[in-house]
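Example 9 (inverse folding). The structure is encoded as follows.
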């Protein structure tokens, strides 16, 4: 069994936790990834302090991470086998259970914004591929320049994976956020470029409500990162929330999830969570996972990897 590390802390008022992806982040970049998480958490905190909704705050945090090429989401994300960007993202409101998601979305600057627009329209939950792109354009979103969003580091990672016969493509760097406002409303959001060299059309858990993202104000909110196929097979985000509902402590609930995924499927990853009482937590079975947490009642932003 993989070693699982965890952390939990209670807050009063609003609170936010973000992650920058579980994986094996090199020591020379781990600190910068953690600082990027700090920036995202603090931007969400500013918004919450000003009265933003949990959905607005979650989007602000995730868009901050999507715009940072350090992560595998938005600019600088992993490329598929054709050398193209293909994004998965989802967001969920815990009070209403409304959700929006995109899968295998081509280049748009902020996939999480498209997912939120789907949520706000409140007719569909998940739109995929070129159909999702056309829907987004019809709602005023503009396609981004793929070349402007693709970095040299992403090209190098793809070349290395293709030289290795397609193996070793798990990129890490998925980003996510869970938010609670002062009234106990919850939201969760997740965004990723997926696996390096993945087949055209592949979607991971970040696109799927219940697998990568889940929020229910009566129990908790979760965003996952890691081995997408394992998280999909176990409906991992919903499992973690149900662990909370059954009475597990918040850190115990997500540790139990990661233990189950490792035991049954050999999958590795990380999770962040928050509940309506203000308990924030993270757990990881990988060596690193950049994260940051801020709250109304704290004098500092906690950061780590």
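The amino acid assigned to each position is listed next.
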């Amino acid at each position: 069994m993989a070693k699982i590390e965890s952390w939990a802390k209670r807050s009063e008022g609003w609170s936010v936790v973000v992650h920058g992806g579980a994986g094996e982040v090199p020591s020379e970049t781990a600190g910068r990834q953690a600082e990027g998480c700090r920036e995202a958490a603090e931007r969400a905190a500013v918004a919450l302090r000003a009265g933003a909704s949990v959905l607005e705050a979650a989007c602000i945090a995730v868009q901050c991470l999507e715009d940072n090429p350090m992560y595998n989401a938005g600019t600088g994300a992993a490329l598929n086998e054709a050398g193209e960007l293909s994004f998965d993202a989802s967001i969920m409101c815990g009070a209403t259970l409304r959700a929006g998601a995109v899968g295998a979305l081509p280049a748009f600057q902020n996939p999480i914004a498209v997912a939120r627009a789907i949520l706000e329209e409140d007719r569909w939950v998940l739109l995929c591929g070129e159909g999702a792109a056309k829907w987004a354009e019809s709602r005023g979103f503009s396609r981004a320049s793929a070349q402007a969003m693709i970095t040299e580091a992403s090209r190098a990672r793809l070349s290395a994976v293709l030289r290795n016969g397609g193996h070793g493509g798990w990129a890490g760097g998925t980003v996510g956020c869970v938010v609670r406002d002062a009234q106990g409303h919850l939201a969760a959001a997740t965004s990723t470029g997926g696996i390096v060299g993945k087949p055209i059309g592949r979607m991971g858990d970040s696109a799927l409500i219940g697998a990568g993202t889940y929020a229910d104000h009566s129990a908790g909110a979760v965003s996952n990162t890691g081995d997408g196929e394992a998280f999909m097979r176990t409906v991992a985000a919903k499992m973690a929330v149900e662990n909370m509902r059954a009475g597990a402590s918040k850190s115990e609930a997500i540790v139990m999830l990661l233990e189950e995924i490792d035991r049954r499927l050999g999958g590795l990853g990380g999770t962040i969570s928050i509940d309506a009482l203000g308990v924030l937590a993270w757990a990881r079975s990988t060596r690193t996972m950049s994260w940051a947490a801020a709250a109304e009642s704290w004098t500092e932003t906690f950061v780590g990897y």
